[in-house]
Design brief:
The chain is of the alpha+beta class. Helix content is about 35%, strand content about 25%. A four-stranded antiparallel beta sheet has the order 1-2-3-4.
Length: about 120
């Protein structure tokens, strides 16, 4: 029997039940350090805004149906509006870091980026 576990990536709107956990992961790993003025509740609100099929949207990475990472794709970062679309967040649970999950999580982001850029 193999020790490899199945890792899958979904748009957040396909697995909306992990929205709060994804917001919490993002808040713990990114928000507290880079944006301490934002509460977990505000982060959860953003995740509700990312339940889309198109930008802005978020992707969640699950291992055996457990959230292990997430990333978001936004129009811009609010600072450089000339740079778009923008990879807004990329985080992997500390227990799963160093396994290539972050790199793998970027794979589905490429299609909406290419689509968005072709519309410019």
């Amino acid at each position: 029997m193999s020790d490899k576990k199945i890792i899958e990536i979904f748009k957040l709107n396909q697995r909306s039940e992990v929205s709060r956990a994804a917001a919490s992961l993002c808040h713990q790993l990114i928000g507290k350090k880079w944006s301490p003025e934002y509460s977990l509740g505000q982060t959860e609100s953003w995740f509700l805004d990312w339940l889309n099929d198109d930008i802005p949207l978020a992707f969640v990475t699950l291992e055996e149906n457990t959230l292990v990472g997430m990333c978001s794709l936004q129009f811009n970062d609010g600072i450089r509006s000339d740079l778009m679309p923008w990879l807004g967040d990329l985080c992997v649970a500390r227990t799963h870091q160093g396994r290539g999950i972050g790199k793998y999580a970027l794979t589905p982001v490429q299609a909406p980026v290419h689509h968005f850029c072709s519309q410019l």
